User: What shape does this take?
Amino acid sequence: MTFGANDTLYIAQGGTDNGEIYTASVPSDVTSGPLGLAYDGDNTELYILLDGQGKADDNVIVVNSSIATTSPAIVRSFKVGSENATSITFMDGELFVGRQSSGGCFNCGGNYGISVLEPTGVVVREFDLWSINSAPSGLTNNGENLLIVQQQAFGFGGGEAIVIEPTGGQE
Assistant: This one.
């Protein structure tokens, strides 16, 4: 038994002509509940936004998507600085994470926003989304702008999609 890269535990079992090797990983405080996916095609990295346990910050794990296995190794991971992250996309070397802010007033704008991070998890900038009235549950891009779909509020009506520019959130 020994540990390898990325805290992978290797267990060898003898006793037969062929023998077998098993792998396992160390558990963490990151849940297996994905909230969103983003892809960096230049570096073949897949960013997976995961819900943190309880009141813990949500997390992003990054895997190398060019290595096709049933259990790809985690290249790196980081917290996104919010326990209420809702969506994620990658554009122009930056990671955009939709979030619901804590506190504030109900349905008055400013409770929702975007955190912009470097691929290593360092926050570059943040901006509020004043024109939406529910969490940005869907987030993607067209290479120039962000497309945000807001979550339905109280089950009334459909979600609204808005297009905003990525530097400060202007529609």
In short: The two ends are 56 Å apart (CA to CA). The mean pLDDT is 80. Residues 37 and 107 are 27 Å apart (CA to CA). The first strand starts at residue 2 and ends at 3.
